[in-house]
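Example record

The entry below shows one chain as it appears in the dataset: sequence first, then structure tokens.
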Amino acid sequence: MARALGGTRSAWLLLLLLMAGGVAGSAVGAALSPFFPAVKNFFTIGLKPTGLSLHFFSISFGFHLAVGPFTALGMFLGYIAFRKL
């Protein structure tokens, strides 16, 4: 029977492990890309930074995601680590 997210496992922990795996995978991919060009980022998606200024308050919005094979592998390993907890 599948367990719901809750108890000792939370969505925040899953997000943290996915982010950590993605960062570690991106670092490995960046280190190996000069030697193996096939491990460069496959695709990039995102929104260009946009700002809102109200004289007393300003905020910026933006999003950028660059995914390569090692980034995806790191995120997958983060998910596996989450499942093992």
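Notes for this example: The chain has a mean pLDDT of 86. The beta strands are 43-53, 58-67.
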